[in-house]
Write a structure and sequence with these properties.
Elements lengths: L2 H4 L2 H24 L36 E3 L5 E3 L9 E6 L6 H13 L11 E6 L6 H15 L8 E4 L3 H11 L4 E3 L8 E3 L3 E5 L5 E6 L5 H12 L26 H33 L16
Parallel strand pairs: 3-4, 4-5
Antiparallel strand pairs: 1-2, 3-8, 6-7, 8-9
Length: 306
């Protein structure tokens, strides 16, 4: 038998698969247990204590402080009262530098409003207020252009209002809405980011909170119903307070961010087991091909003639 039969093709494949399995194992474990910076600490199922202040209290029938002044997306000073009187409004509290939850919230709202018959500026107003006092009208104008483009009806621009303001006025408004948020450090350690939840509020024409909607995706039917009830000065009922948080979990103290990594690890382990099973099966097949049973052999042993 030649050298090729002593070194079957399946064995060559097995070596390649073995290298692949070793590399995959190293990669999977390094995702979670990298040297020095990714060692697991004590895990728990509780939310970080910093999120104790991040909440939305549904202050239904609460009167908004309409005398507050803000800067609109054109750089003009405006009073909240200028958006009320004749029509209800949808109020969203966000910050424009947010790169995760706030864009999803506004995109979800814009997408839902595309399927609502009522028209911004004619039947209701959309009021988006930044709770970051460092943001100004330039950012507000950019956000308005983006979401007005998503909405697809530039003629409704008069019904979309993106506002920025000073900290004292922001504090009064967020307190009235029941919207809690906290500053958190970025990667450089500076307090430039916020931990916050996501919700939009329906407000009656006289400025009373009529309904809360949580999360980042909103039902067009619910928005339509909420606007109709608010137009008739009706106050809705509380909804399930299931919050969506914008917050970066620390993997050394909380296991929430490790869940996905553990699932990836499990999938990798299953892959390795399947590869190992395949390799073992191929070895058995090759062994049988290379060493076929000899004819005439059995269980009775060999007889020696005298």
């Amino acid at each position: 038998m030649g050298s090729e039969s002593n070194y079957p093709k399946t064995w060559k494949s097995a070596i390649v698969l073995a290298f692949f399995a070793a590399a995959l194992t190293h990669s999977l474990w390094s995702q979670v247990t990298g040297v020095g910076e990714k060692q697991m600490g004590v895990t728990n199922d509780k939310l970080p204590s910093i999120l104790d202040e991040v909440k939305v209290t549904q202050n239904l029938n609460q009167q908004l402080p309409l005398g507050l002044t803000f800067i609109d997306d054109e750089g003009k000073q405006v009073r909240l009262a200028s958006y009320f009187g004749a029509h209800p409004a949808i109020l969203a509290l966000v910050y424009f530098h947010c790169t995760s939850l706030c864009p999803e919230e506004l995109t979800g709202l814009t997408s839902a409003l595309r399927m609502v018959d009522e028209v911004p500026g004619r039947d209701f107003n959309v009021i988006v207020v930044s709770f970051d006092p460092t943001e100004g009208p330039e950012l507000a104008a950019a956000e308005k252009r983006e979401h007005l483009q998503q909405y697809g009806h530039p003629e409704t621009a008069s019904g979309w209002h993106f506002l920025t303001g000073a900290q004292p006025n922001i504090d009064v408004l967020t307190k009235a809405v029941g919207y809690g948020y906290v500053k958190i450090p970025d990667q450089s350690g500076k307090l430039t980011q916020f931990a916050h939840a996501s919700s939009v509020q329906i407000v009656t024409p006289e400025g009373k909170l009529a309904q809360y909607y949580m999360g980042v995706e909103y039902s067009p039917k619910d928005l339509r119903l909420g606007l109709a009830e608010a137009s008739n000065h009706r106050i809705g009922s509380q909804v399930d307070n299931i919050l969506t948080y914008c917050y970066h979990y620390d993997p050394t103290t909380n296991k929430h961010s490790l869940i996905v990594a553990r699932i990836v690890q499990l999938g990798g382990i299953i892959t390795i087991v399947l590869l190992g099973g395949y390799m073992f099966l191929m070895f058995r097949i090759d062994a049988r091909k290379d060493n076929p049973p000899k004819a005439g052999t059995g269980d009775k042993g060999t007889r020696t003639d005298a």
